[in-house]
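Posting for a labmate who doesn't have an account.
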Amino acid sequence: MSEYKVTQGKSEVFYDRFQRKDELQHQTHYCPGCGHGVAHKLIAEAIEELGIQDKTIVVSPVGCSVFAYYYFDTGNVQAAHGRAPAVATGLSRSNPGSVVIAYQGDGDLAAIGTAEIIHAANRGEKIAVFFLNNSIYGMTGGQMAPTTLIGQASTTTPWGRRANNDGFPIKVCEMLATLEAPVYIERVALGDGKQIMKAKKAVRKALEYQKQGAGFSLVEILSPCPTILKMDPVVARKYVEETLTKAFPLGVFRDRKPEIPFVDTPHRPIAEVLGITGVKVSDEHKAARRAQTRETTIKVAGFGGQGVLTLGQLIAEMGMREHMEVSWLPSYGPEMRSGSAHCSVCLSHERIGSPVVTQPQALIAMNEISLKKFGPKVAPGGVIFYNRDRLPEDYKPEVRTICLPANEIADQIGSAKVANVIMLGALLQETGVLPFDSALEVLKDSLKKKEKIFEMNRKALEAGKNYIEEKVLVGAVSQPDGYAN
């Protein structure tokens, strides 16, 4: 039997199985005739041919492009609507040598993400952007996009786009080509086989530039959207080939390495930038300090004005001083005071994959609302610190819960503002995650020339520690060991 050579097949860069949510097991993501599947294939083949799968990170935002992470067996990060270039910038700068891809649609990139794409291009960020332009909002129901053609009907322009009312279609390639920093900009199409072959070359070239660390690249891909444009897939391909290409001419708009003046700005260590004094720490000393710390995740929650975010920052800075990997992620409403506020803190001895904490091992709840909202999410074996002398009658905790009236203790010390530091003292004493001397150092450095305020904070830290040692009130069913369920 003669040998056969496989010339077409699924790229190794794709997952073996394309997973679906339970309720969508028998549905495809992309409509028949959609250009996303073709674009995925071109990108996957280029990644495989260039041998960069192990260093590639794909950023997918909101829209049909969000489904990219179901397909590419690479690093994957999802970004908020329009923010893929900003997220890609952070990934590229924090992971030198990686190949970072922002995969975006026209509504995402050219509408809500206009600022991100322009400034990323203007800075010459080392990212490759693949921009699918189908002239319409695909996922959200067919509204007018920034690329919708003059006269083209949509759900928001039922009589067709009018220049005097809606402006002209935005030509992204032409706009970005006016900037100095981009290395490579090209517009291609998926109208027929010949156009697809040219698109494949452009995709590969953009990724080659990223492999070399050359700078910013963008490939605009004119793509069919049969469902929303209400066309047969074959007709939609013709629409791309004959109509879209007239409004958006194909071609290379930039292919050169710009001369960017280089200024050798000194890079300073984090400790120096933050004003943390001290000598260089040896690996042996780091190991010794590490023995004093414990990995954990913490959620701090309450009202704005209760020092919730500040407490999270204090814990994160303590972790840094103890040579741990740390993250601090705040969340708060528009109100400056009395609005909801919470933050997540991760303390780890290894690199942190995500700052998001869904099941904290410790919760500091400064009010009842926060207790009831986040208490049920505390991980089994975790602990809750509640800012009251007893639990609400209608609340039954599932983990150990420590009640301490931090507000009342703070009033006795002389300032309601130190209630959060009292909670910090209790956390450190109960969990042993970080040493007390580190907390005192952080407070002292942050309150320089404010000796009176520092003294109150020191007393607050001690008060929280002493409360745990002397008269902890445990809210939950007591066990033989004196602790709670």
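Reply:
Got it, the structure tokens are right above this. Confidence is low (pLDDT under 50) at residues 475-485.
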